[in-house]
Structure formats: C-alpha cells, structure tokens
C-alpha cells in the first residue's frame, strides 16, 4: 500500500496535457451555436477545456416547435418529444440570448454556479464521493481502487490505473 501511495503522490506532481470535456448538444442556427460556444469558452480553463459536440444530446432552439406559447417570465424550458429532448429558449424572454443560453446550460448540465470552478468540479470526474470538492478523500477512493475496475475510472477505459491517477492530479489542488 505504501508503494501505491508513493505512486499516487508522484502522479500528483506530474504535469501533463489538459483533458477536455465533450458536451453533447445540438444548437439550431448560427447565432445560437455561437452563443453556446461563447458560454462554454467562459467556463473552459487550460486544464479542462469544454467542447461543444453536436452529434448527440438535446436539440436547442430559439422559440418553440411545440406550438405551446411561452410564459413571458420564462427564460427557457426543456420539453420531450418522444425519446428526444428539446431545450427551447424564449425569444421574447426576460434575458438576452447569451444570458438565456448560460441559464439553460447551467440547468441542463446541473452546474451549481456559472464559474470555471463549478464546471471543473462537475465535468472532471475527479470528485469521486460527489461532495463538491476534489480532495484527499477522493484520492483515497481512487488509490483503493487502483488496479481494479471500480470508482476512479476517470478516462473511461474500464480500468483504474496510473492514467486515471494522472487525470486526478490535474484536478486536485492543495488546500
């Protein structure tokens, strides 16, 4: 176990290339796509860039295809059409498009706040016990599963290994 902890501590010291989080969403139209990309750029950091991937996820539109009028105070709503989900932005809502997109994305991706720190905690996967902080408790969970297939598989390769420790090290910050 001492060897494992030493390997973990060494991995925390390593520097490496940044990992990225792919967010699947299908914004409709150039203005909406640009607003989404601008919103994601505001949350991205060098250690965790957020990328818009348009090959899946809910469709995002300005206005309603359902024919149901918006409440004037509503910024956005999510509706289901069969197996498909749609995020509809109120074109006459109380916020300008960029602010409405931020609010809709914060709700869709369950962000506690619209900050790079909140995005890092949400999308890095390193908060293994889901307490809102990446700390030594998460490192202990990762190290206990090293060599196995349990919690701590941060890169999605079905194995908890040194690659996951390296990804964790990019998210962990000394208090």
TrEMBL record:
The keyword Disulfide bond does not apply. GO terms for biological process: polysaccharide catabolic process. Keywords: Signal. Transmembrane segments: none annotated. Residues 1-20 form the signal peptide. It comes from the Bacteria. SUPFAM superfamilies: Type I dockerin domain. This is EF-hand domain-containing protein.
